[in-house]
Specification:
It is a single chain. This protein is of the alpha+beta class. It has one domain. The strands form three sheets. Strands 1, 2, 3 and 4 form a four-stranded antiparallel β-sheet that branches. The longest helix has 31 residues.
Length: 238
C-alpha cells in the first residue's frame, strides 16, 4: 500500500507504512532488471530524438500476443527475440545478456537509467500504473516494493505524464489500424513499418523524426547519449 503524503513525508491517508520520500534515489533498479520495456511509436520517437539515435541502436521488435497495439510484421532477420514468431510485434528497448534494460547501469549498488531524459511512458509513470479501457483513464496502481510517497508534486507529475501516455496509446492504435489496412503481406518489414508510422507520429507529436530513421551505425552514439543523459540527471534518479 502506498500512501498519499505531504511534501515533508507525513502520511495524509490511513496506512500501515511510513511514506518513503525520494525512494528512487535508493533504488537497486529491480524494475529495470526484471521487466521488458515496451514503447509506443511516439515513445520510441521521443527516445530516439532526445538521444539522437536511430531506431535499431537501442530498440527492437519483439513478438507480441496482444489484441491491440501490436503491428503485423513479417519475420525480421535482425530480431534477437527467442520467443516464437506470432506475426505481430511490439517495440521494446533491447536487453543486455544479463537480462537488464540496455540503458540500465549499476552505480555503486544503485540502479540508474542511462537515458533518463528520454525514458518512455511506462518508465515515466513507474512505480505508478494507469490502467484504462478507454482514453479517459482508469484506476491508479502502485508497483514499488516500498511505500513510495505520493506527494502533491508526484501526483501532479503522474497525471500529466498519464495524459501524454494515453494520447500516445490512442495514436498507437490508430497507427496499427492504418498499417494493417495499407501494408501488404510479404512487404511488412521492420524498415517499411518505421518508414510508414514514424512520419505520421512525428506530425502528430511535433517530434523531429530524422534520428529515428537514420541508418548509420550507432554503438558509440548509444554510449555517448547515455553518458550525457546521466550527467544531466546528476546521477541521482533511477
Amino acid at each position: 500500500m502506498t500512501p498519499l503524503s505531504t511534501p515533508e513525508g507525513a502520511a495524509v491517508s490511513p496506512t500501515p507504512h511510513r511514506p518513503v520520500l525520494n525512494a528512487c534515489s535508493m533504488c537497486p533498479g529491480f524494475c529495470c532488471r526484471r521487466h521488458e520495456v515496451h514503447l509506443t511509436v511516439a515513445d520510441a520517437l521521443r527516445f530516439c530524438s532526445t538521444l539522437d539515435l536511430p531506431f535499431f541502436a537501442a530498440l527492437r521488435f519483439v513478438a507480441s500476443e496482444r489484441d491491440e497495439g501490436a503491428f503485423l510484421l513479417d519475420v525480421d532477420p535482425r530480431r534477437d527475440d527467442p520467443r516464437p514468431w506470432t506475426g505481430k510485434v511490439e517495440l521494446s528497448l533491447k536487453r543486455t545478456p544479463e537480462g537488464n534494460c540496455i540503458v540500465f547501469h549499476d552505480l555503486a549498488g544503485y540502479g540508474r537509467c542511462g537515458a533518463y531524459a528520454a525514458r518512455p511512458s511506462i518508465c515515466r509513470l513507474y512505480p505508478l500504473s494507469w490502467t484504462a479501457e478507454r482514453a479517459k483513464g482508469g484506476p491508479v496502481m502502485v508497483l514499488c516494493p516500498v511505500p513510495y510517497a505520493v506527494t502533491p508534486s508526484v501526483e501532479a507529475e503522474f497525471y500529466a505524464e498519464a495524459a501524454t501516455a494515453i494520447d500516445y496509446w490512442e495514436l498507437q492504435k490508430e497507427l496499427v489500424t492504418s498499417w494493417e489496412r495499407d501494408s501488404e503481406p510479404g512487404r511488412r518489414t521492420g524498415r517499411l513499418l518505421l518508414e510508414y508510422v514514424v512520419p505520421i507520429a512525428a506530425a502528430r507529436t511535433g517530434i523531429d523524426p530524422r534520428s529515428m530513421l537514420d541508418r548509420r551505425d550507432a554503438d558509440q552514439r548509444v554510449l555517448a547519449a547515455q553518458v550525457e543523459s546521466l550527467r544531466r540527471a546528476g546521477l541521482s534518479r533511477a
